[in-house]
Amino acid sequence: MGATPGLLYVTMEPRQGLSLDQFHDWYNNEHGPTRLRLPHIFPNGLRYRATDGLRPTFLADYDVTDVEHLETPTYTDLRENRTPREADTIGQVVVNRRFFDFVAAQQRPDFVPAEQLTDAEAEGLVLVNVEVSLKDDVDTVEAEKAIVDWYVEEHIPMLSKVPGWLRSRVFRTPSHIEDATTNPVNIVTLHEYAKTNGLDGPEHKASMDTPRRTEVFTNYIAAKSRRTYELFYVFGPAPRELAALAARPAAAAFTTADGKITTTSAPAPAIDAYVTTADGLNIPYRLEGNPSPTAPTVAFSNSLLTDLSMWDPLVAILKARRPDLRLLRYDTRGRGDVPSPPAPATLDVLADDVAALLAALRIDRLHALMGVSMGGATTLKFALKYPARVARFVACDFNVASSEANTAAWKGRIAIAEGEAGMARLAPATVGRWFHEVSMRERGDVVAWMTAIVARNHVRGFRYGCQALWWYDLRPEMKACQVEGLLVVGDGDGKGALVRAMEGFKAGIGPEGVELRVVKDAGHLPMCEAPEGFWEAVQGFL
C-alpha cells in the first residue's frame, strides 16, 4: 500500500498559573523544532492563535508524509521520553491531539505554503476550520462520499472566488491508524486565506446558500463547528525563540540530555544548538543579542581551526554598542567531525552551510555576514552565490585565490596534526604564525586563549576542512558581486604580505571595488587581537 498523508492537529489551552513565556519558550525552542528535525515525517509545523474568542486558544498543525509514521518509535518515543521541562509544562496545558487522513485539496495556481514564505509574509494568514459530524442513522460510507463530493465539486470551487482565498483541504477523522469503532467519522476542512480577505462577503455567503448544500446538510450532517485562527509562528528545525526566553528567570535555563541544545534566559537570552546539513553534518550555532524576531541579524564565520568563541571580544562590544542587532555565530565545517562518508570541504559547500543555517532559523536575509580567513573566503563566496540573502559583508584576512605554496603548507600542517603530538604541537605554531608580534609579547592571555581553541580542533575535521583552501579561485566571479562589501586586515598579517595582497584585489570585487581598512598592531585575527581597533574599522559600515 502507498503512503497515507495526513495531519497532526493539536489544540492547546494553558491552565491558569502557566505563564505564556514558559509555554512559548518550551513549544518554540523544544517541542516544535524536535519534530521538524524529522523531515521524513513532518515537512512543516505551524502555530495559530484563535481569533474567534473561543477556547482552546492555540492550535498547532503539522503535515505528515504518512500517518503510519505516527505509530513508529521515531515519533512515539518523543512523547514517551519527555524532558522534565516538557513534562512540567505540558502538565499545565489542556491538550487535544488528533490525527487526520488527507482526502482532497484545491489551491490557487500561485499558492505558496506558509513554510516557504518569510515570517513577515506568513504571520497573520487566516485559517478557518470547519468540522461536520455524521448523523447516526445514515450509511457512513454513503454520507462521507456525499459530503466530500459536495466540498470538492461545489463548495470549494465557490470558495475559490472569495477574495484572498488561498487553499482548501479536506480531511477525515478518525485516521485509519486509530480505532474507528470508538470514534465517530467527522469530515474536517481547513481553509486558508490571505490576511486581507473576503470572508463573510457576498462570495463567501453565496457558497453557503445553495440547494446542494441544503440537501447534504439535511440528509447527512448532524452538527457543524467552525473556528477561525491567525498564523503567528512557523517552525524550523532549529530553535530561535529569544523573545519568550528573554522574559524567563535565570532558573529557566535548559539543556537537553545529549547536551547539544542549551538555552540561557538571564542575564541575557542565548540559544546554543545545531543545524543538520544536507550531508548529515551537525553544525553548532549560538543565537543571542536583541531578542526581537525582526531585529537585524549579523552572522559570523570563523577561521579554520577556531570555533565560534573566537568572536567573543567583538560580540561583547556589539552587545554594548549595538543592542539593536541579533547575533548569530556558528562553527565552520572542519571544527568538529566530518560527514559520513568523509568529503573534502569546498567554498561552495561552506557557503551552502551558511544558507542551510539561515533556512533552519528562518532568517530570510542577513543585515551583514562577517568572516575571517577561511571564513572571509566563505563570506565572499556566500555574497556571490546568495546575493539576496545578505545586505552587506565584511571579509577579513583572506585571499581570493589559493596557491600551490599554500596548498603544500596545508598538507604539511595535516601531517603535524595527524602525528604523535597532534594538535598540541600544531596549535602554538599556528598562533605564533597568526598573531602580531605585539600580541605575542604583550597579550599573553589572548595568546593562551587562542592556542587552547586551536588545540581542541578535531583532527579529521581539520584534514577535510582545510581542503577548501587548496584549490579555489574567486577572481573570475567576484567582479559581478552585487552585495556591498568591506575588507579588513591586520597590519601584521603575514608580516604585511596580506595587506598588499588585499590591496591588490579590492578593486576587483563588484563593479566599483570595495574599501580595505587596516587594523594596527594586529595579525591574522584582528577581532581577537585588537577588538577595539577592529570595531573602529567596521562600526560605520555595520
TrEMBL record:
Q: Which UniProt keywords apply?
A: Hydrolase
Q: Which InterPro entries match?
A: AB_hydrolase, AB_hydrolase_1, AB_hydrolase_fold
Which molecular-function annotations from GO does this UniProt entry contain?
hydrolase activity
Domain named AB hydrolase-1: which ranges? 307-526
- Keyword Zinc on entry: no
Q: Name one Pfam family in it.
A: Abhydrolase_1
- The answer, when asked if Hydrolase is one of the entry's keywords, is yes
Q: What is this protein called?
A: Alpha/Beta hydrolase protein
